[in-house]
Amino acid sequence: MLFGPTCFVYICGLFTVSASPELYDWDVLLLSDDKSDLVQKVSPDHCMELLNEDMQYIVTVAWEQFKKEFNKTYADNQEHDKRFKLFCQRFMAVREHNKAYREGKVTFEKGINPFSDQTIEEISLSCCGIPSHNLTTLPGLKYRKLDVELPEHVDWREVGAVTSVRSQGTCGSCWAFSVTGAIEGQDFLHSNILKRLSPQQLIDCATPYGTKGCWGGHPPDAYNYVKEAGGMELDSDYPYVAQGQTCRFDKNKVATRIFGFVEIPDNEQILQQAVALYGPIAVAIDALHLSWVDYKKGIISDPACKNTRRDMNHAILLIGYGTDENGTPYWLIKNSQDTWWGEQGYGRMLRNANNMCGIASYANYPII
């Protein structure tokens, strides 16, 4: 069996291989001419044995590429076998979903990424940092809806209010990145200078205010800490290390301050107005679904997503909204899973669809 060749030519349903040190194109590996039915066909334990010989070969080549591209190593053969079975199931599910995407049955495309050999339960430990069992009730100022006309399109990246995408790694620090992004946006709108602030400071120092470092936290608690501590340092002065450590906040290095935060009601129209008028918003969603984990491009829509505040488990940054070429309204969001996720680290979610994944259920922004 050949591992490492990379040029596939799709002819009559078969792959021909040429020796090359480069990687295969995932779009080619995931290509299928069959019609989709969006039915889960295989379980991890029986994935390979239910595939024909050609498909087994494709999955095996994809597995070798996956390990190489994402630097995957495993403790022993048993762990390797377990991860391969999970990958096989996920790979086939992504192929099936993407057939439906090409047929216009779903609004987004999936892809292979570093999570493709993990269960959703394992993913939740690193991706999701909003503890749903103890939601913060710390009061903020209440948002007051205004009677104004809104633009059809908002993208705060276009005016320079959004820093580049970062990776939270295996630390459940999404809440810190969401809050940091919201403060960065407000600071830019007041100073016209974009500063890359320190989520690590929040992880290390906000625990007396109710956060739990890499084990999760809530934006209101983080805002309260920043207000009482006297501000935030730059990321260059307090760099991210993806784990908790002793707080070493230095007031002499404060780059910006806040004076509180605003709570936005659980309403998509009000959320649209807030992000249009006041800048990037910290929001939380129900992200424990493969529609989110495997997302590559398009507009995320998943009827299995929950939309109440108690179901929120992942914090992100809302940076705008718009409508695509098909007339589908979307929210524009920034994630903290590096640029391999979604559209270079950003994503779009269906807007005005019964509060898809709860995006309007737990929204807030800082006051500077």
TrEMBL record:
UniProt keyword Ion transport present: no
Domain Peptidase C1A papain C-terminal: 150-367
UniProt keyword list: Disulfide bond, Hydrolase, Protease, Signal, Thiol protease, Zymogen
GO molecular function annotation: cysteine-type peptidase activity
Alphabetized CDD domains for the sequence: Peptidase_C1A (cd02248)
Gene Ontology biological-process annotations: proteolysis
Domain Cathepsin propeptide inhibitor: from-to ranges: 63-123
Endpoints of the signal sequence: 1-19
Superkingdom: Eukaryota
Family indicated by similarity: Belongs to the peptidase C1 family.
Name of the molecule in the record: Uncharacterized protein
Organism: Opisthorchis felineus
